[in-house]
User: Fold these one by one.
Assistant:
Number 1:
Amino acid sequence: MKSTGRTLLAAACCLIVILLAGCAALSSLNTKQETLEERVKNYMQAQIDGKWDHAYSFFDSSSREKVSRENYLHQFGKPSYKGFAIEEITMFPSGDQATVKVRIDLLVMGYVFPLVPTQNWVKENGGWFLKWSETPSRKTTSFSPGEKQK
């Protein structure tokens, strides 16, 4: 009887260790998402506030090699962003890349156009940075060019 009790105790201890290790890994992934979520919010807020120079600082090094600060500042002019909401964060298994779907409310000539671009974020030097995309993946929920309005 004593060996059965020890076996059960050892099995229970092993199960607890496995569960704790799994929780630690999940907690680590959640922490990475929270850090990324804050980074995305700060980037989007810089755009809403029209702080394009600050928004440029969120790009990763390869993106800054492709597009200079001056070209970035002149390319965008001053779009009027009214708001945003993070719709989905998908972390890659490696934990150093993620895609983020953000709903952006863009005001154009009195109309609000909700856009849903997918942003690609990468870890670089311990922080999250946005990858530049010349043709961002966008899905509009209304007024999409080429669609007939009902």
Note: The mean pLDDT is 76.
Number 2:
Amino acid sequence: MNLAREKLDGLGKMSIEKILSVKKQIEKDFSKLNPKKIELFFEEFSKDKRNRSFIDYYNKTVLNQEKIDFGEFKSQWGIQGMKKTVYSFFDKNFDRRLKKEITNEKDIQKFFEDYCCKERKEYTFCTKLFHTVLPREFPPVDNAIREKFGLQEEEFMKSVLVIKKAYELFINHNQKKIEPIRIVLSQSKFDYLKPERLSDLRILDMYYWFNENHKQ
């Protein structure tokens, strides 16, 4: 595939191989799925009470864009060790100016450097916040997913952008692999996921989030 015409978000030529490697891995993973496996996978997902509770929160804050309480945000997304001074800052400033900065600039690296690494490097907080505001553009990457794609040695935000681009390329070229998941999720027992409102990027993210984090 020729990526010369693709926007690489400043990742540089050295990242092209990594992007294509992640895309290839996604294609390999999804080629193993069939409707029955997909249904069993999401039935298992549904049985976990923590998942159901989180999905309720996700629907509220991401799909319905309700006001974020950042103490709850930290807890629901499982962010460990974040100081109250940090999330209190976001409580005070998010709606007033930070949300607009995310939507206008869409620069996760700059936002991280400006607001998320003063006291501790809050990488996953930053990725999950960007996904909350821009759910069709940024995946909420965590360490389990970075490790899945062999990017744990990369600088964190660079690995986020590599995965973001690989997801986008996979989506653009593999709609036939995504459509069976949407058909399965259209069953009434999965209504709580609100699949009709989910982006293809979120479908990928949800699959890998459950698959990788529940191995641990």
Note: The chain has one domain: 13-213.
